[in-house]
Amino acid sequence: MKATKKWLGLALSLVLVFVLAACGNSNNGNNTSNSSSNTGTNTNTSSNTDSSNTSKDEVVNLTFWTLGSNGYDVLVEEWNKANPNIQVTVQNTGDQTEHHNNLLTALSANSGAPDLFHLEIAFVDKFLENPEKFYNLNDLGAADIKDNYLDWKWKQVSSADGSYQLGIPTDIGPTAAYYRTDLAEAAGLPSDPDGFSAAISTWDKLIEVAKAYTASTGKPFVDSTDLLYNALRDQSNGEIYFAQADGSLIIEQNAQVKKAFDITVQGIQEGWIGSYGLWSPEWYNAMNTDGFVVSFSPAWMGGTFKGNAPDTAGKWQIAQLPEGAGNWGGAFVTIPKESKYPEQAYAFASWLLSKENQLKSFQSNGLFPSIPSLYNDEAFTSYTDEYFSGQQTGVAFGKAAERVSPVYYGSLHDTADGLVKAGLRNVLEIKADPQEEWNNAIAEIKKLTAR
Amino acid sequence: MVRLSERTRESLTAYTFISPFFILFAIFGLYPILFTFYLSFFKWNALGPMTYNGFNNFKFVLTDSTFWTSFTNTLLINVMGTIPQLICALLLAVVLNSALLKGKQIFRVIYFLPNITSIVAVTLIFSVLFSSEGVATWIATSIFGMDMESISWRAGFWGPKIAIATMVFWRWLGYNMIIYLAGLQSIPGDLYEAAKIDGANAMVRLTQITLPLMKPFIIFTVLMSTIGGLQLFTEPYVYFSQSGSATTPKTGITMVIYLYSEAFRTNFFGTAAATAVVLFFLTIVFSLVNTFITNRLGGDQ
User: Fold this and answer.
1) B60 touches chain A (CB under 8 A)
2) pTM
């Protein structure tokens, strides 16, 4: 008898342990504000009520998922020293698809999302469609700092009526022409930024210059198909693949996309585009040797050049893109709804992206500020970079930034873009028929909208 | 108090002891599987609400030419990577099992090592071997006299498949060899002695004694290779992400990469779930067919 009881008791408690564990989990998942443990709920309410002046005995720990090389870890250290009650932990990822997928699964499961998330522009629309997963930063005071930031950048993460704000802008990615002064000079081209910009002031001129360079040296003039295509694509007028009004596919109506495709194909066929894949070891090697003359890259690419091409330091300068500028990338800091400390998180985010700190991020990692009042600031314009032959890089990219017109992406932008580039790669690598690749890409993108 | 018979008590005890597995399996195994079946009838982007979509997800997947490309790719890579690999594994096991060889232990470890190394690291190394300056290119051009243009290890039709099949071959050779070795050691030595006395040579002993008695082990490895091969993902995924693009080119897309792209590149979780269900049934079909064929191959004793 006794033995039976004992066994039954054991069995029951075992089953209970697992069932309760499972329940606890799903509870936690369904309404995150109710933390699974009692103590959690208590701290939660107390911190929500008087968070602006955090109670002295309590330390709030915030997690911050960041993307790419941005130097935020240094700024976070500074913050942690100054704010012993709000400690921020940085978790950095290099792979942007992975970075956003981690957030997607965490949000979907209602568990595991960070307090602060570094959201890249190409992925914004996916999350903007589900605003209930993030705090409305206007409720936390973002409306007050709105005017500090570039208007178009701010609106990329606002609802149409402006009442909802998903994130605070970090940097923007004005695109310019990184070019080798020594190679330009050897080829008889002007080596100063203004002269070089004038020599490639239109895409037709660029093609002529590139053809001549390749004919005389046998080397490519432009580095990669992806970057040339990006530069042309981002000069689209307001929209690229999808319409802002109703999200419909407009790739066939957008002449700029076709032009981007055609010029890239021409470059491949005439041999003046390198076969280096973007981010490949071959590409890094080419920038560290004399592999190419021009790379159409955004401001944040400066860190990549410095890190991977130490041997060509001092031989680069920044000129302007043919026919206007473009913007590739840039990001925002957002606060997922799961965070228990939105006010502390907001306090940190608004500090991190303040004027002073955006200047620091620019100086350390080339992140181009989204605060226009900096563009005329002495500290910003006087900054010179030895890597770029002592050029005032802030001024150079500032010229590009002034000409940037914002574009709408849409939640399927990244996938559609990948399909077009896959077609270009086939033209490059297996000499596929460009017209066929273009048709294929369009057919594949149409399938995306048919699911 | 309810009186429990001795028998009930005993089985209750037994169930209690095995219950942790079943409870954990129900949460982490069964629930996701059932949810996948459920999800395959819905449209879902992982964040918003789910909307019922009938059989449209299946219709989309089964009429999508990319899916069928991924299907043939998976099969081709498997045939190229698995069949030669199982044959080599068996021959290697026979060699290692023979009394002639010294240092068996070392060879066993060496052959098994690939299986426990990180697939990502392995793929990165093979990416270098299969780059334009790699060993594979050198072998193809200078030994087989092919020209550089015709072999494209990343974009051509056969190039990527050869590269990935080679990785599969290298990785699983040792694993299957160890299983065969265990099988060989379970065959009683007196059978061979008797055969030797009857005048059977090594070839006859291999085909008449070793192979028939190894059949259960061969069926096991064929089954495991079939299931594992249909789920091929990491090798092609890492190999193609080396070229720095968010999409896997059609020539190297496998069924699980297709599934992954649906879910995590385009966020159509419904069609991804439908792909998983299709893959589930395909795996059953191929496992049955392959087991049947292998069973027939050895003939009956």
Assistant:
1) yes
2) 0.78
